[in-house]
């Protein structure tokens, strides 16, 4: 049975199989070794994520096989400001940390061997948010700020550290690239192909640190290069 | 439990989660409704595919839930000419038909309700094959021809007709686009982003004919647009 990696998160996960998306790249990278399974829910914060865990990961209680890994990529919506138009998605910082801990603890309880990889929200390009608001924005103030996203990113890193989990500090990593605002983000929040590439590369590197790499995972069925042209069927004997 | 669509085939399936790939586009299209599961095996013909069915689709015998659909996309390797450098991948036309029937019958027996969608091999641009051979090609003759691919495509359509299955005649459809040789194929055989787009659109249309469309499939968990901003948690009551 081919093992699975689940991608659990908000819209940045849900749209990760679009053109150049980090989820599709991951599925392509692991095309003969792992099933990459999409569990992205646009607009969701950790409060809502907690409510749907059993439904997003059925089989947990049914003795379903443990996945190799789960990426947990929330915070962009939690960090919506409480006094702007996305206020209904906002979650207070302390609750965000507690929710992340609860998500991790649910996953660990169900699947003790599964690697859990936390990913912080990306930085926010406030100018981009003003140019591409979701809905009419008469206040003309961004509904998310980079400062708020940074506070949630730090909280995510803190939860990872205290739980001994790997984490990708996307908020910090992305800002190391000059021009990240337009190069890595298409609307101040969601990823461009270059932003997707960054996430893909960081996820592959972290999974490798956890022992999950193409070199170490078994290939599903014989590779063409290993099939003897003079006796191909030999490779398919069970 | 989110339902599945399996993509079963050769390299044109295995690489379908690459940039602009038809598999990734399908996963993106169905991002909240269906898990699109990759079962592509580079270089495989129907003879080898038959040998690995139980391993490619474990769970069949274990009472695994029936997928919504399986795409069966073989023939490009079967159609390799028997006297050129890919001869070891060649399968005679009659055996190809019989193998396709056996694959269909295996799937139907395991999962009587699952839609099986056959896809013919694409046309071959012989000039592209000469420019991008897999291995040294001292004969300087293409290892595949468009004529041979066409014969296998017709055989695939015939098997679909006799079995009452939907089929995408990719060999014919692609050649209706002037310039298909370089526009739709990158090496005379594998798909460009435009070729991938064509396959994606045809698969979505055929699945829709079978009743499998975004309009008819249930969405996994509440959509953001359906969540009441004044009482978001109402949407998450079970």
From TrEMBL, chains A, B:
Gene3D superfamilies: SGNH hydrolase (3.40.50.1110)
Molecular-function annotations in GO: hydrolase activity
InterPro entries registered for this protein in UniProt: Iah1-like (IPR045136), SGNH_hydro (IPR013830), SGNH_hydro_sf (IPR036514)
Natural source organism: Rubus argutus (Southern blackberry)
Protein name in the entry: SGNH hydrolase-type esterase domain-containing protein
A biological process term (GO) from this entry: lipid catabolic process
SUPFAM superfamilies: SGNH hydrolase (SSF52266)
Taxonomic lineage: Eukaryota, Viridiplantae, Streptophyta, Embryophyta, Tracheophyta
SGNH hydrolase-type esterase domain span: 7-198
Keywords annotated in UniProt: Hydrolase, Lipid degradation, Lipid metabolism
CDD domains documented for this protein: Isoamyl_acetate_hydrolase_like
Family note: Belongs to the 'GDSL' lipolytic enzyme family.
């Amino acid at each position: 049975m081919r093992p699975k990696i689940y991608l659990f998160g908000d819209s940045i996960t849900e749209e990760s199989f679009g053109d150049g998306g980090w989820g599709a790249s991951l599925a392509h990278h692991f095309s003969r070794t792992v099933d990459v399974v999409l569990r992205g829910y646009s607009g969701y914060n950790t409060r809502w994520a907690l409510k749907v865990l059993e439904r997003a990961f059925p089989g947990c209680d049914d003795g379903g096989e443990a996945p190799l890994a789960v990426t947990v990529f929330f915070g962009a919506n939690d960090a919506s400001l409480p006094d702007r138009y996305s206020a209904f998605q906002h979650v207070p910082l302390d609750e965000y940390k507690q929710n992340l801990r609860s998500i991790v603890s649910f996953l660990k309880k169900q699947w003790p061997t599964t690697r859990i990889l936390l990913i912080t929200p990306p930085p926010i390009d406030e100018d981009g948010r003003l140019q591409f608001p979701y809905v009419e924005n008469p206040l003309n103030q961004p509904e998310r700020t980079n400062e708020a996203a940074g506070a949630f990113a730090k909280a995510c890193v803190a939860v990872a550290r205290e739980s001994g989990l790997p984490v990708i500090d996307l908020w910090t990593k992305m800002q190391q690239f000059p021009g990240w605002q337009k190069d890595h983000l298409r609307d101040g929040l969601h990823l461009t192909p270059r932003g997707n590439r960054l996430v893909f590369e960081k996820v592959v590197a972290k999974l490798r640190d956890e022992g999950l790499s193409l070199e170490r995972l078994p290939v599903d069925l014989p590779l063409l290069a290993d099939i003897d042209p003079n006796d191909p069927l030999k490779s398919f004997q069970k």
